[in-house]
Amino acid sequence: MQYCLDPLRANLSVLAIELRTPERRFIISNFEQLGLKPELLRALRDLHFTEPTPIQKLAIPPALEGRDVLASAQTGSGKTAAFGLPILNRLMDQPRGKTQALILAPTRELAEQIAEHLTALARHTTVRVAAVYGGVGFGQQLAAFKRGTEIIVATPGRFMDHMRSGNARLGHVTTVVLDEADRMLDMGFLPSVRRILEKIPAQRQTLFFSATLPPAISALVRDMLKDPARVELTAVHAPIELLTQRLYAVPQEHKTDLFLELLKDNNIYTAIAFTRTKHRANRLAAALAKSNIPTDVIHGDRTQAQRTRALENLKKGKCRVLVATDIAARGIDVAKLGHVVNFDVPLVAEDYVHRIGRTARAKTAGDAITFVASDEEPLIRKIEYIIGRPLAREINPLFPEVPAVAPKPRVVYQSRRRRR
């Protein structure tokens, strides 16, 4: 088979993969054409998944062939099914009672989300899935290892704890997935990832997913992948036709006042507000709660039970605003999240893309709002350069005297993919 991607198409929604064999040539438009087992197709129908996303169209065929895959794609693009369906398709033909697939993810929330998604996809099979992460007791995780759960989804730190205790048995692992590998680098997990990979048989399939490929990760790729199928969709950052992005210039000390003013609009029904530090997250959450805004907070100092409860409250509508640090920027899937508020502009431009990727998911509309203090203007210029266009600026309803557009040098907006 030959995997073809039209390089002239800029919008992922119109990308397709052509499968060429001596007998046929066609465009993938549904899951049945991928050759998945009936049990998986039934689960996809149960979940109302009809057409594969672009990353699924491109990554699933080579993964089903047993090839290594190196994929660059944004969060929210359907990566879990892209690696999960090939794993489940293969394990359905394998004996039970031994861990055969290991998926490593950088955060507890992402590990739990992946495990939940794979469990739903495996509902008509006998393949079992377990999540292994810190912040909770070892009991259930130890039981999952003892019964030989076929798919383990883990954070590197907790998995290393189980390795040191002799709980994790890796001798039968035939597939390894690294999801959000660049985030693992940011969090300092790559040394642990290398130690884990050293304990896994060399004869394995490796599926590697990362939004970006910095030099440290490129070295890991060379060490762990063998003749990988390359899938690169990083040029498109967000469903622009569904996502509105706007900025408000506001003095740093009045950001909370502006947020409260905007929250008077009942169209902001569910929102994640991102701050730069845990202290600022706590302070903003307290201010919102004092104004009777149903609020919760999630950051690294919160226990796993608190983080899980906060996300559930947001999903169930019990919480109107979830205040978070960037620990929540990836791996959180909240259906119909209406707004993302960048209370603080992120220091790293790529983190802006991950933040706003929490909304406008699954073809629903979304709104991304960013508060910009004068000292954050250089960060905004970097973001505009990364996404390839200027961001719309709105008049501040509380401080109309603040210039909507700060003086800045002329920037030529050009996507990095086109420049290569």
Count of individual beta strands? 16
CATH class of the largest domain equals: Alpha Beta
How many structural units, i.e. domains? Answer: 2
Oligomer: single chain
Any low-confidence stretches, pLDDT <50, length ≥5? 1-26, 235-241, 407-420
Average pLDDT value? 82
Q: How much of the polypeptide forms β-strand, as a percent range?
A: 15-25%
Global shape:
globular
Give structural attributes.
420 residues; alpha/beta; Rossmann fold; 7-stranded parallel β-sheet; 15 helices; 16 strands; globular
Any overview of this molecule?
This protein has helices at 38-46, 54-64, 79-91, 108-121, 139-146, 156-164, 181-186, 190-198, 215-224, 255-262, 278-290, 304-315, 349-356, 377-387, 416-419; strands at residues 18-20, 25-27, 69-72, 101-104, 129-132, 151-154, 175-178, 205-210, 229-232, 243-249, 271-274, 295-298, 321-324, 339-342, 366-372, 392-394. The model is unreliable at 1-26, 235-241 and 407-420 (pLDDT under 50). The protein is globular, with a radius of gyration of 22 Å. It has two domains: 70-232, 3-Layer(aba) Sandwich (Rossmann fold), CATH 3.40.50.300; 243-419, Rossmann fold. By secondary structure, the chain is α/β, with parallel strands linked by helices.
